Amino acid sequence: MALISEFIDDYKSKMGHYEHLAQTCACQCESALKRQGLRALVTSRAKKLDSLASKVETRAKEKAYKSVEEIYEDIVDLAGVRIALYFPGDREEVDHFIRSHFNVDHVKDFPEALQHPGAYQKRFLGYVGRHYRLRMKPETLSPEDQHLANYVIELQVGSVLMHAWAEVEHDLVYKSTEGFLSQDEYAILDELNGLMHAGEIALERLQTAAKRRINTERQPFSNHYELSSYLYDYTRKASHRNDYEPFIGRTDVLFHFLKDIGLNSVPSLKPILQSCNLESKELPLAQQIVDYILRKNPDYYGAYNDARIAVGRSDPYGAPGEYVPFLSDDASLGSFMRQWIASEKLLGDTLNTVLNGSAHQDSVLDKETVDKLQAIRKLRNEILYGTNLPSESDMMVAREFLQEMMEFLRHKNDGAKLQEREA
Question: pTM for this one?
């Protein structure tokens, strides 16, 4: 008991650390899910002292702990995060996000049957969910939080209904004084669990009905959640694969952009989607849509800039560089972006053709120029879609190169026109 008391006292002094660990993970989850148009409630907590003490005392009977460090290694849910999904059908998208965004050590699926003798034989499945044991990636953390990548977090994913039922069952069953409830109490919990499963079926039907409405109507999308739903379904159907996981990207900024330029509907999006690479794992579909629109009409850069800023005002998780106005009077950022837009207007689709490596051999741009343009396009993409702005020096050098290239092309074009007149 002395060792357990020592552990509890040590954990009590570190609770602030575990609360910060859980909150940081929860913020990353909430931000990403919202940006991708997935509805969920995200909560976090550091394990409560009374619950932890009871758990350690129980496990100590089997584990025979010899040190405080052994207890820390054994208890993996000191920092916990819960994702409660509005729609159970979004589990696959959330699973894909978790596996790509975090370092996942272990995954455990539920339900599990009660293991004690004389257990009530459930008619329903009980708790349904997926628990992940994971760590945050260092590159997703600020410099002062890099140490958080060393700590394990338990992340639970289930429906809002199932999490509500699990809270009731956990407090009654696992925290009951005797350790067991009466058969009547178990039967009532089982009955409530059946209602939760029926509720999940209703939620799935509700989601299916909403998707059917979104995919067939010609009215504008009401919000970025509807836009996300349409893009996920369209991409999956086009792939003809049940196991295909679309790479959609951010739809919050995309929704505002499409709304501002009047393309926020299924009939407007379909022709654009037909020109996108739906199976790309390098470029998210949302970025491909924006690139296509800006390539066809560079004047829409202003509308995209406004959309980024509008979303940034209400996004508590955004990085500062994500919402800096790129058409400002800034000597490096603004001048570089205006020069890039001017280049797109001058070259039109030719610029995209060259940058994608499909230019004709008689192109006026040599390989060295094309390589530099590809590097400059990466700077442009960092500004439009990234979290950090390029350095001022890189943007200034790129702007000067674009100016020189445009002067060269204008001079060559004027020379060609003069030869035509003389001929």
Answer: 0.81
